[in-house]
Amino acid sequence: MSRLYNIILKLQKIDIYDCIAAIIILCAASLRILLGALGWPPTNSDEGVMAIMAMNIAYRGTAPLMFYGQDYMGTIEAYLGAGFFHLFGGPSLFALRLGVILLVTLFLICMYLLARLLFSKPLAIVTLLILSVGSIPMLTRQMIATGGSSQTLFLGSFVFLLAIRLSSTYKQHTSSGMKFRRLVGYAVWGLAVGLGIWSDMVVLPFLAMAGLLLLVFCWRELLIWAWLIVLSCIIIGMLPLIQYDLALKLSSWTVLTKLMHGGNATAPQTLSGILHNITSTVLVSIPTATGNPFCPVNEIRVLGNNAAHSLQCTLIHASWGGGYLLLLICALGVTFYTLWHLQFRGKLLRVDKPGVIGTTSTGSRAPWNSVLLHAKELRDIEQQWVLVRYIARLLLLGAAVLAICIYTLSSAPVDLPGFHARYLVSLLIATPALIFPLWNAAILRPVQTFEHIKVYACRSILILVWLLLLIGTIIAFSEVPAARAAEQQRQDLIANLKRIGVTRFYTEYWTCYNLIFASHEQVVCAILKSDLQPWNNRAPRYFDMVKADPHAAYVFPLDTSMLPANYHALPVVERKVAQAGPGKYRRYEFDGYVVYQPA
User: Fold this and answer.
1) Fewest C-beta atoms under 10 Å: which of 78, 117, 318, 387?
2) Other CB atoms closer than 10 Å to residue 193's CB: what's the count?
3) pLDDT at res. 445
4) What are phi and psi of 335, to 5 degrees?
5) Cβ proximity of 555 and 595 under 8 Å
6) Strands 524-527 and 504-507: what pairing?
7) What's the pLDDT score for residue 253?
8) What is the rounded CA–CA span in Å between residue 551 and residue 504?
9) Mean of the pLDDT values across residues 411-420?
10) At residue 199, does pLDDT exceed 80?
């Protein structure tokens, strides 16, 4: 009986919100694992490069420091994939993607803790519900192993979470034991920042704002002794990047800057160019990055659908992108207003237990077991605790604004705003701060007619957003048969190539590396651009292997409309074959490809 009584007491101490959060996170991870097991999303050659890196790590003892062919992106996903290859008995796309899903699951855990700390447990649950589902672009970035996105989400949220904890627990005079624990905290924070910079510099706005939060509240500690720990651990986290740059005598920051302002397009220099970028960002990039499930935009057709331009799609994109910006402005306004009243007006504050603060009028009834305190008392008791959370909210929103501004002024939205929307994946980290104004209004107890309208409108918007993201998830499941058919076509192509004796061939980028991985290197290819010159051969060894084979074939998709212009090598190959004369090449067609094999 005593044991049963102890169990009952322990059950009574379990927090219902933490249990709900654990269930949601488990369901979100299971959802992504199920989609991965069913073969969705469709793979591509970027993921093929990551898979080849993971194979090289797992079975050849190599230790790549940076993503093959991209001098600004780290290789955490490749190392995780190599571990799962060993765990699951061999290389497979499913095992590779488990590393990405693991990082996204850690991101969801961090987001729950972050939202619970800055706002409230109910809002943290709503945040998880929104982030647990998503549109096809959202889920693709959270499952496919192409580098950057999953690390940005996890490390960006983790760095912010740890900065808030360090800032809120800072005391000028503390015990040696507490100093040691804070020392460990600073070390972990610095290491996470370094790993984030190595993984993908897209996360920099959130790292910078988290660092600013520490400077505001912990500057005494940082100036006296903690700066050395933080700097050392940042360098340790960035060590692969530093080693890579020193070995090749280049700067990853310079490479990234050139890509942002150069690449295939040039960053805008005129007012009309900037306005074009703003329009592309609002109408395409923000909706794509934050979960709009309708009218997908992907300018490279081989990677996904591209909705036809129509008034209906424009209205959908404008509503989503404009609504996002409006909500961002409202959240900033609410946070600024509250800080101003807290500091200068002595406004009454609501302190929700545990760890939630919000403004309220003197006569209103505060929900969620609130306690009213005057700002003067807060200055004596909880001023730092309050300020940390409000300034952290402001900086979290500021990081989202900074990310959007940097993206808008770069070359990314000039010609490929849908494809480059992945550079705004970090906006998901600001989700709880973004929806807070809606949530704050939705939980009010209305008295007047206008208040009823406002409350039910905000509740409806929150429910609608979640339902739209849920519809996006359902659409993803509806595309599973197409993804499985594409994978079967890939396996059939490999079998047919081996049947006719083609194991070395030239092709275009979006065909090559996923074939190498899918065949476990039984077929090997090299990449040619439209003028038949070598181009974008990222993985080492393969080009030399193909070049050394005098009987290397040409294998290209029949439907060139799916490819960008610089991938259209098939017409040039056909002219070369015609010039060679009859009998020099054998021609085959299967699985959507044409093969020219030297006789």
Assistant:
1) 318
2) 27
3) 81
4) -70, -45
5) yes
6) parallel
7) 64
8) 8
9) 88
10) yes
What would the mean pLDDT of 427-443 be, rounded to a whole number? Answer: 95
Q: Give whole-number Cα distances, 197 to 134, 205, 445, in Å.
A: 26, 11, 45
> Chain-centre distance of CA 561, in angstroms?
29
What is the full DSSP assignment across 49-89? HHHHHHHHHHHS----SS-TT-TTB--HHHHHHHHHHHHTT
In 402-542, the DSSP E strands lie at: 504-507, 524-527
CA nearest neighbour of 65 among 57, 132, 338, 581: 57
Structure tokens at 553: 């074939």
The length of the chain in residues reads 599
Residue type, 233: C
In this structure, what DSSP letter does residue 596 have?
Answer: E
Select from 391, 358, 324, 396 the least CA-distant residue to 110.
396
Contacts of 69 (CB under 8 A, 6+ apart): 49, 536, 537, 538, 539
Grouping H, G, I as helix, E, B as strand and the rest as coil, residue 211 is: helix
Give CA separation, 37 vs 93, 95, 510, 514, in Å.
9, 9, 23, 17
Instruction: Please report, as a single letter, which amino acid is at residue 139.
Output: L
Tens digit of pLDDT for each residue in 562-586?
A: 777 677 888 899 999 999 888 899 9
Tell me the domain boundaries of the chain. 262-443, 482-598
Residue bearing the bigger pLDDT, 77 or 266: 77
Is 523 within 8 Å of 497 (Cβ atoms)? yes
Question: Helices 16-37 and 449-478 sit at what angle, rounded to 10 degrees?
Answer: 30
Listed residue (171, 189, 177, 175) closest to 227, CA to CA: 189
Q: To the nearest 5 percent, what fractions of the chain are helix, strand and coil? A: 70, 5, 25
Q: What are phi and psi of 443, to 5 degrees?
A: -95, 0
Output phi, psi for 596, to 5 deg: -115, 110
What residues have CB less than 8 Å from 305, skipping those under 6 apart? Answer: 296, 298
